[in-house]
Amino acid sequence: MSRESRKFNVPDELANLYDFTNSLDVRHFTYHGVQHEQDDELKGSRELAAWMTERELLRAGTRITPEAFATALRLRTDFRAYLQCDPSERRKNRRVTGALNEALKPFPLVVETGSAGRLTLQSARDDALAGLSVVVAEFYNGSADGTLDRLKMCAAEECRRVFFDRSKPATRRWCMSTLCGNRMKTRAYRERRRAVG
What we know:
Elements lengths: L2 H5 L7 H7 L2 E2 L4 E2 L2 E2 L3 E2 L4 H10 L11 H19 L9 H11 L4 E5 L5 E5 L8 H14 L5 E3 L8 E3 L12 H20 L1
Helix pairs in contact: 2-6, 4-5
């Protein structure tokens, strides 16, 4: 679990998925006169290895090949596309689910009995990307228990940060109402004023 996932109270069961999808930062707005810098934590195989190691998802001495890196980026892209859809529309969007199904194929999971007799999903892979199967398992478990519906992408075009919706009715649209919500409401107000005047 990262500082970011702790800061925003993301459940442990979705923390790696949250971190993985937010490893790409496409925010491009100005806040208090400062332009936000876009970034990608996974710029290359080395950075992906560091990201996975930090979360204990990579065995020591394991090397990530360029092909494995491309596979990981495709998974992230398709997770983000899925989370961008409204939760009620996610399973209906054939284009998004089809692409995601293809991205998930390299990450087969097997059911194993844990130490307390509890069933868990484990990676069927035994290579550098086996750790990303933990992220895929979080995605599956979140879908099965309904918590994945609370993982959403900010509706603000200039943000697109993934957030966990803790509101009781689960109807939040923005990662932060004080930042993105405020900006969107102000913009809508100005557009209404322009249309009237």
